[in-house]
Design brief:
This protein has about 240 residues and is an alpha/beta fold. The protein is built from 6 helices and 13 strands. The strands form 4 sheets. The protein has a 7-stranded mixed sheet. The protein has a two-stranded antiparallel sheet with strand order 2-3. It has a two-stranded antiparallel ribbon with strand order 7-13.
Length: about 240
């Protein structure tokens, strides 16, 4: 099975670290973020991984090479200009069967094999791995209509919402919705699918997942990895 890892972004929220390293090469313990993800993919039966690269791509090619050290076949798809999170898929050759797509900075204990089974059972064109999050608002929230009349008042509410984990499973006909050479982000792709009447499925996951967008998130992820190393990289 084939996977695509999106590894071409500049990781600007993690600057200045990402001025030296591509974000997927940021160290988590004695591994890079991307190495942990590659090990997890291999355990799920994935043999071929295409890396879409751009920012500091030479470092990634030199470090990961052809993937033989991970018992994987790694190829590279160079972005000459930014294409967003979904646009690079149009340039990846050989996506003729169900395939996995992942951001290059995902740290999670999600079972990729279970995600793939869920996708096949629900028969959508796309399955998005989701995680439940909460925002606690420390203020009174006022609801108002168009005539300035107060309709409600909620003291310090908690808002529940589902977020994308940066892991997706796609059927190959998804490429019909991604024009080659054009910038396209995943939210816009999902809107195109829904407008066309396609079935898009959400896979709920309540286990460990850490977003690595900000420096404090990255530090938390590094600490979590050290404390749960045997779960991420079992013998």
């Amino acid at each position: 099975m084939q996977a695509v890892i999106l590894a071409g972004g500049k990781g600007t929220r993690l600057a200045p670290y990402t001025r030296v390293f591509p974000k997927p090469m940021m160290p988590i313990g004695d591994k890079t973020i991307l190495e942990i993800l590659l090990y997890q993919m291999k355990r799920a039966g994935i043999n071929h991984v295409a890396l879409t690269v751009g920012h500091l791509s030479g470092l990634m090619r030199a470090f990961f090479q052809d993937g033989s050290q991970y018992n994987l076949h790694i190829t590279y798809v160079q972005e000459s200009s930014p294409l967003g999170t979904a646009g690079p898929l149009a340039n990846v050759p050989g996506l003729t069967k169900t395939f996995l797509v992942s951001n290059g900075d995902v740290l999670t204990l999600l079972d990729i094999s279970d995600l793939l089974r869920f996708h096949r059972q629900n028969k959508g064109i796309c399955t998005i791995a989701m995680h439940q999050r909460q925002i606690k608002v420390d203020l009174g929230v006022i609801e108002q209509d168009g005539d300035y009349r107060i309709k409600g008042y909620i003291e310090k509410p908690t808002i529940d919402y589902k977020v994308s984990m940066g892991l997706y499973v796609f059927e190959p006909r998804i490429l019909d919705f991604i024009p080659a050479g054009y910038y396209l982000d995943f939210p816009d792709l999902i809107h195109k699918l829904l407008a066309a009447g396609e079935k898009v499925v959400g896979y709920p996951f309540d286990g460990y997942w850490q977003d690595l967008g900000r420096p404090d998130d990255y530090e938390q992820a590094a600490n979590d990895f050290e404390n749960m190393r045997s779960l991420f990289l079992p013998d």
